[in-house]
Amino acid sequence: MDLKGKDIITLEDVSKEDIEFILENAEIFEEKLKKGPLKVLEGKILATIFLEPSTRTRLSFESAMHKLGGRVLTVSKDEMTSLAKGENLSDMARVIEGYCDVIAIRTPIEGAPKMIADMVSVPVINGGDGAHAHPTQPFLDLYTLKKEFGKLEGLKVAIIGDLKYGRTVHSLAYALAMMGTEMVFVSPRELRMPDSIIKVLKNKFGVEVEEKTKIEDIISEVDVLYMTRIQRERFPHESEYKKMKNVYRLDSKLMKNSKEGMKILHPLPRIDEIAPELDATKHACYFSQAHNGVPVRMAILAGVLGKI
Ligand code: CP
To answer: Which atom of ligand 1 lies nearest, measured to the CA of 57?
Structure first.
């Protein structure tokens, strides 16, 4: 498998074999890390350009780079760059490519990572562009599922919440389809998975996905509840967000009907959709899922830099 020089902009840029390769190498890196930091990317520089808030994606990319012996340049506020003086993102990216070996970027502008990838010679990794895509999140979601269940094929995953604006679930749906994992979508009608994605799932992967509006209708039959927050920042009007914000809340009462061994994942941040009383239960995987971002992003960085 050769990921060297590859941009990762959407899940459509990767194959099932790429996913398996990254997951295998993430496992190897996680094991090797137990003995201490590595030198695989010594002399290499990652630039993280994050023009929207992030805790997990930016810091796990940066941690991954440090643990591989590389270095990091970071932009986390556009006001601290010459974007504030009117420079455009393309010019900024063209300059930054001369300072680094790989770029990870998050931007509110859908399509901007692709535009930059077409312009610069270093690999570009999309860390989330508006409501469009977040293609590295599913790698750590799948890695977590594999660790928990030992397999991906044959599982049934309910993806719950804001499926319209949630970029993580757009990418996750493609990844699960590629890996042969069954899905059911649970959302209010107003926040359904976009038809464009449902069409690709059907036409490209032959996957027909059930759609429901209530967690109660699926909780006894799924292996995984993949919860997501309502994406406040994407709603055109705050009043529409307020109508939706408390639509789902998973608590111990609701969990009483869950399937034996069922796991809860969430890309985080969580708002109110998972009651904290569930955090210490055997179902909760969301914090280990976030931690899995480090070995997974180590594998992605080492892959696109041609070191695995
Ligand atoms: N899961 C995720 O994308 O989290 P951040 O927004 O904190 O990066």
So the answer is: 8
